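Q: How would the structure tokens look for this protein?
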Amino acid sequence: MGEWELRHIKNFFYNISDLIVVLLILVGAAALILWRLDLLAAYPKTVVAESAQHEPAAQEIVIEQSGSAVADSTETAQDSTIWHEGKLKMGMTVQIEEGGAEDAVSALVNAGLFASYEEFVSVCEKVKADPASIVSGEYTFAAGSTQEDIVKEVTGSK
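A: Here is the predicted structure in token form.
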């Protein structure tokens, strides 16, 4: 082989080496993505789950009983520790933050005053109150209050 042919082959490899490196990087990235595709697909669900755990104070409830406070109760409206014959056994304070009606009612549900948003709406219909008219603020419900009393107070339908 002559000097010209060797220089031509050397220049060919020199010119194409950048393309080979880029191609190797792309193949490696594609292999990595395909290998961990299951994690990438699950990422949005993970973000939603983590953000639900770190909700702002709209979900925080304080239940006061004889001077002590318990944060973020998860008891249901039928739970005998809160209700007795349809009336509250103890006084409770609940903070309702601004937001949509369902978000606001979630504070009442988390406190155990209602089992669900649907139950809140049902009680609103009983007392002829608009469930969307729930007003944000801090509410203290006295022992002996019923669900109807609570709906009237938080919707301003007294």
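The chain is about 50% helix and 15% strand.

The first helix runs from residue 3 to 35.

Upvote if useful.
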